[in-house]
């Protein structure tokens, strides 16, 4: 198995497809999660993409690296008709928890709704090529062996093709010249706290910690159907923008939007703290075996696994104040606290003087400029993260002995030389739109193509290309 993946002449890398369930058309509000409807599925485009890279390789075998967030487990809200497990009220509202039997159900939903995608991969494998799944922050549930088994069954009708499919934890070395990572390990909002030991144990169940960004998608964005989670500008806006969107699209569909947001924000904050305090499952007798297995799947050495693990940033959940600012809970609590204090003061004043409660609004108006000043001073750091810095690139290149690093995660295509490292990002394929009506698509569909250099066949060169399905 190791020899099959140890060398590659042609490598294609794509990321951030965010495949999830098909959203049924809302009978009253057709714009509700319109970006998730079958209208914007691109499975047939993916099939054409595979044909294009095969034509580029001119009959040679291809290594296709699906570099994270291929599946979006966080956006799947469908529930089983006859569950064999107890479903909590939270799961009914915002989706199933990341536990083996629940994650297996979710991948079955994705497989069913994206039959063309899995059929295309099956044909690709049967023609002799191979596929590598790198786990991103939105498909961390690929860690569960049962989920991997179901994917293999969907794309490997011929038993021999099982050897041509590999699942790797968070990085992969292609041909010993290219380090491929999803990149979420350097984003404090999306980092998997312990990718070597991702599982946690509860009372009579085994689950996994999810990053803050995943929890926010589950508990907030899953309940706000007019915001597209695939592009930051759709949900990280100014107060004026939020009001405009609300008045234009949500005043009838979600009149209690503030309540939905506040409930989701509190749930996100509490679950982040709960996960932060949960200890990972570690068997001291199997730690070396686990590191060795990760290294073998990634074509790496065991020391590379440990050293790359140490490069990961601290999770944002270690900073409660920061999370409250990102969730706007700090501003909500300021408003509620101000109303409470003024209400108590007015009760005291009314016990002495006969005055109207409307006088309470005078100090509120005086407080308003200070509140607006504070609001303007707080900036979201979620959208400020773009790529790992030069130090991360240099150190990861030195650890793995490569001069080329490929990321995904940010949805921003890049190809640049930073210091001694060639840096590429394959962008995204997800259904991202600049507007609620889904009339302004941000169509990238870029991919990284690595092939032998025409001047020196022993050396591979990398290109950032855009797939045009209409050509």
Task: Please describe the structure with a list of short key phrases separated by commas or semicolons.
six-stranded mixed beta sheet; 13 strands; five-stranded mixed beta sheet; 471 residues; 15 helices; alpha/beta; globular
Could you characterize what this model shows?
With 471 residues, the protein is of the alpha/beta class. It has helices spanning 2-6, 43-57, 89-94, 100-113, 115-126, 145-155, 212-219, 239-250, 257-276, 287-297, 302-311, 320-326, 329-350, 361-377, 390-400; strands spanning 10-14, 62-67, 130-134, 165-168, 171-174, 178-181, 199-202, 205-208, 404-407, 414-418, 421-425, 446-452, 460-466. Strands 4-3-2-1-12-13 form a six-stranded mixed sheet. A five-stranded mixed sheet has the order 5-6-9-11-10. A two-stranded antiparallel ribbon has the order 7-8. The radius of gyration is 24 Å and the shape is globular. 38% of the residues are buried.
* DSSP helix fraction: 25-40%
The residue-averaged pLDDT reads 89
Order of helices and strands: HEHEHHHEHEEEEEHHHHHHHHHEEEEE
Q: From the alpha-carbon coordinates, what is the Rg to the nearest angstrom? A: 24 Å
Unreliable spans are: none
Q: How many alpha or pi helices? A: 15
Q: Approximately how much beta-strand content do the residues carry?
A: 5-15%
Strand order of the main beta sheet, please? 4-3-2-1-12-13
Number of strands: 13
Which structural class best describes the helix and strand composition? Answer: alpha/beta
Largest sheet: 6 strands, mixed
């Amino acid at each position: 198995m190791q020899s099959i993946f140890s060398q590659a002449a042609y490598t294609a890398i794509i990321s951030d497809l965010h495949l999830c369930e098909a959203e049924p058309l809302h009978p009253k509000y057709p714009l509700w999660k319109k970006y998730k409807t079958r209208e914007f599925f691109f499975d047939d485009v993916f099939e054409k993409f595979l044909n294009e890279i095969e034509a580029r390789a001119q009959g040679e075998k291809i290594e296709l690296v699906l570099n994270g967030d291929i599946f979006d487990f966080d956006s799947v809200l469908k529930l089983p008709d006859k569950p064999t497990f107890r479903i909590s009220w939270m799961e009914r509202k915002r989706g199933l928890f990341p536990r083996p039997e629940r994650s297996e159900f979710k991948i079955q939903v994705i497989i069913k709704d994206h039959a063309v995608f899995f059929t295309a991969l099956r044909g690709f494998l049967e023609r002799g090529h191979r596929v590598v799944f790198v786990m991103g922050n939105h498909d961390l549930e690929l860690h569960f062996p049962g989920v991997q088994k179901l994917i293999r069954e969907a794309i490997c009708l011929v038993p021999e093709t099982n050897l041509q499919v590999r699942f790797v934890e968070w990085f992969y070395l292609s041909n010993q010249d290219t380090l491929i990572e999803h990149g979420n390990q350097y984003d404090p909002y999306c980092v998997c706290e312990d990718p070597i030991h991702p599982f946690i144990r509860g009372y009579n169940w085994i689950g996994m910690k999810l990053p803050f960004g995943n929890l926010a998608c589950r508990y907030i964005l899953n309940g706000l159907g007019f915001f597209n989670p695939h592009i930051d500008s759709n949900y990280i806006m100014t107060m004026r923008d939020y009001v405009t969107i609300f008045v234009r699209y949500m005043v009838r569909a979600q009149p209690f939007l503030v309540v939905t947001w506040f409930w989701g924000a509190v749930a996100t904050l509490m679950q982040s703290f709960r996960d932060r305090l949960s200890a990972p499952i570690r068997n001291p007798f199997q730690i070396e075996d686990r590191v060795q297995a990760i290294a073998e799947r990634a074509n790496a050495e065991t020391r590379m696994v440990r050293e790359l693990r140490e490069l990961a940033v601290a999770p944002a959940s270690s900073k409660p104040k920061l999370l409250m600012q990102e969730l706007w809970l700090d501003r909500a609590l300021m408003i509620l606290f101000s109303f409470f204090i003024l209400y108590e003061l007015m009760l005291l004043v009314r016990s002495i003087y006969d005055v109207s409660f409307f006088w309470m609004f005078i100090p509120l108006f005086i407080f308003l400029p200070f509140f607006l000043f504070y609001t303007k001073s707080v900036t979201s750091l979620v959208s400020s993260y773009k790529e790992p810095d030069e130090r991360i690139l240099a150190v990861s290149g030195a650890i793995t002995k490569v001069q080329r690093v490929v990321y995904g995660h940010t949805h921003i295509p890049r190809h640049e030389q930073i210091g001694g490292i060639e840096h590429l990002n394959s962008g995204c394929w997800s259904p991202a739109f600049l507007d609620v009506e889904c009339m302004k698509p941000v169509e990238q569909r870029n991919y990284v193509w690595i092939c032998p250099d025409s001047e020196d066949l022993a050396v591979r060169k990398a290109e950032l290309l855009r797939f045009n399905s209409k050509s």
